[in-house]
Amino acid sequence: MGNIRRPTLDDSAELLAMVHACDIAAVGEPDFTPDEVRDALTGPNTDMTRDCWVALDTDGAIVGWAFPHNTNRGDHDFVEVFVWPGRGEATIRPLLELLLVRAAERGAEFGHRNYKLRAGAIPTEKPWIEALTEAGFTFLKQHARMTMALTGHPHTAPEPPAGITIRAIDPDDETELRRFQATIAEAFEDTDHHATDFETWQARIAGESSVSYDEWFVAFVDGEWAGVLQSSDNSIADGQGWVRALAVLRAYRKRGVGEALLRRAFATYAGKGRTEVGLGVDMANPTSAVRLYLAVGMHPKYEADIYEREIVTA
Predict the structure, then answer these.
(1) Reported confidence tier of residue 235, pLDDT bands at 50, 70, 90
(2) CA distance linking residue 270 with residue 158, whole number of Å
(3) 142 phi/psi in degrees, rounded to 5
(4) What is the C-alpha to C-alpha distance for residues 60 and 185, in angstroms, rounded to an integer?
(5) Hey, how many other C-beta atoms are within 10 angstroms of the C-beta on 227?
(6) Which of 4, 154, 176, 180 matches a 20 to 30 Å C-alpha distance to 124?
(7) Angle of helix 174-187 relative to helix 198-206, nearest 10 degrees?
(8) Measuring CA to CA, how many Å separate 191 from each of 40, 91, 186, 282?
(9) What is the C-alpha to C-alpha distance for residues 105 and 89, in angstroms, rounded to an integer?
(10) Which of 69, 55, 59, 12 is nearest to 37 (CA)?
């Protein structure tokens, strides 16, 4: 095995190829985009020169990549280690150890005495699960990737329940954009969602390769702002519509708002020729979001186990 160094943006193509190999081995198809590689390297509270590492084989090729993310300086890091299947497994533990040491420093920098680390693993990723278990991580819960085919799906959404109206966001109205972001933050405050301040959120959106604001929707109940749906362009190249966030304010839940937003998004995706829609969901979400996704016809494509351990910071 070769050495370990810090990554640069020039490594992006090689990192994407490696992650795609991991995806194919774990779930049968690529599940990562170029924008997601960039976000992992340059996202809020991630510094490539301090927080990220790549492992090289003896020929200098990248066979492992480790990085954390914590977009709002909250009380836990989500740590990731990707390695080339069949080539990089020996780098899992050294990379994880680097993340553990750095996490203690990050927790202290973010103002936390007790700091949690979380990591996800597809059940077939045995070497990664073994490394996590040996490092003191224990099972916490599951996340699922939900999907639904859009072939033949109507291009017009059904009428929402009485009193509910849906429209696209006005991207030129900063007040509306601020309210949109604040709705996501408020609706997810009792979940693992890492909300950021508006400026950080806006900068992240501005850095994406494309943004289809006509796929971002606002719901009103009797004229009152009630919820939002934010789409992502990350999966367009694969013919997929992607729901990045569905957020309904507490006072308007269980009234059909979430379903109306989803059905509007699905019709819009189908009208643009997308063949599938996808999203990620925390199976332990206190709003029982998975029930809604099942009710509108989605199904789990795969599930990932989430592991956690706690550390005392430096």
Answers:
(1) confident
(2) 14
(3) -125, 150
(4) 42
(5) 25
(6) 4
(7) 110
(8) 21, 32, 10, 9
(9) 26
(10) 12
DSSP-assigned beta bridge partners for residue 83: 64
Residue keyed to tokens 């601020």: 178
pTM value?
A: 0.84
Report residue 269 as tokens.
Answer: 């995706």
What is the structure's pLDDT at 287?
Answer: 66
Residue 192 has pLDDT above 70, yes or no: no
| Rounded Cα gap, residues 287 and 284, in angstroms | 9
d(CA 171, CA 214): 9
Q: Please indicate whether residue 166 or residue 289 has the higher confidence score (pLDDT).
A: 166
Please write the tens of the pLDDT for every residue from 79-117. Answer: 999 999 999 999 999 999 999 999 999 999 999 999 999
* Cβ proximity of 241 and 231 under 8 Å: yes
Written as one string, the DSSP assignment of the chain is: ---EE---GGGHHHHHHHHHHHHHHHHSS----HHHHHHHHHSTT--HHHH-EEEE-TTS-EEEEEEEE-TT--SEEEEEEEE-TTTSGGGHHHHHHHHHHHHHHHHHHTT-SEEEEEEEE-TT-HHHHHHHHHTT-EEEEEEEEEEEE-TT--SSPPPPSTTEEEEE--TT-HHHHHHHHHHHHHHTTTSS-----HHHHHHHHHTSS---GGG-EEEEETTEEEEEEEEESTTGGGTEEEEEEEEE-GGGTTSSHHHHHHHHHHHHHHHTT--EEEEEEETT-TT-HHHHHHHTT-EEEEEEEEEEEEEE--
